Amino acid sequence: MSAEQGGFAAWQAAQLARVERALNEWMPAQAPAGLGEVMRYAVQGGGKRLRPLLALAACEAVEGAPQAALRAACAVELIHAYSLVHDDMPCMDNDVLRRGKPTVHVQFGQAQALLAGDALQALAFEILTPEPSAAASADMPAAMQAALCRLLARAAGADGMAGGQAIDLASVGLPLTEPELRAMHRRKTGALLLASVRMGAACAAHPLPAAALQALDAYGQALGLAFQVVDDVLDVTADSALLGKTAGKDAAAGKPTYVSLLGLEAARQLAADLLAQAENALNALQASGLAHTQPLHALARQVVQRQR
């Protein structure tokens, strides 16, 4: 392991520990009729935590407020977790395995899964709006809270994740062009990854130069699409035990993917090209005067080179 890799590994371990502690603190210990247990099951015990790491890395790049970024990181992870709970249900993707364990509706029933997803979504916005008396409010002025809520809501809504899932369900068995597939994944997967970067940047104490915002957006957009392309590759090359979810399910369900559209090798090349785009965007970010980009570089490489 190189010194650079070792430095990132230490950074990642420290940030993951911060996120896990905060999620454990902010998740309700008690909720009516066992709902808290279901929420914790959905969030804890697995997952790459990529979205929180992106938010924290982007905050570091812009020298933002760490505690505000931690709240943003946890909020975006809760939205991601709620989306997985709902997507796995029989009315959507009807999956039985997630993060190496039974999906929430399999473990607790459909009604509890639906309610847990709803509660996680609400909790995300509660975390972004701390009580005025809370210590975190000093680092999160009202304007920052509003900006973070807006970024997350737009990424999760009709023009983001929910809209992308609607297109995905409507596209089963249909041939899509590459621009149509890209537009779907810009919403379904990419919107929340881009929002993670934008939310981290929104924790900056001062307005950022336009060039820096453009570079961060270019990075987030390239990374968001790369993540989905690699997901499509892994769906046909990895097994369920390694993935922690059912492998080959997209092909079996007749869903369009980058592998079905482009072929396996072309999809792999596209992922490599998108990684280059993300790294070029970070070089532009450094040129705008923001030098703390090593974690963002390392996360982009991790997304493309991952095996699960």
UniProtKB/TrEMBL annotation:
InterPro entries referenced in this protein's UniProt entry, alphabetically? Isoprenoid_synthase_dom_sf (IPR008949), Polyprenyl_synt (IPR000092), Polyprenyl_synt_CS (IPR033749), Prenyl_diphosphate_synthase (IPR053378)
Name the needed cofactors.
Mg(2+)
Q: Which protein is depicted?
A: Polyprenyl synthetase family protein
Q: What Pfam families would the database entry show?
A: polyprenyl_synt (PF00348)
Q: Which CDD domains match?
A: Trans_IPPS_HT
Highest taxon above the source species = Bacteria
Family assignment from sequence similarity: Belongs to the FPP/GGPP synthase family.
Q: Give the organism, scientific name.
A: Ottowia cancrivicina
- Which cellular component terms (GO) are annotated to the entry? cytoplasm
GO BP annotations listed? terpenoid biosynthetic process
Q: Which GO terms describe its molecular function?
A: metal ion binding; prenyltransferase activity
Keywords (alphabetical) are: Isoprene biosynthesis, Magnesium, Metal-binding, Transferase
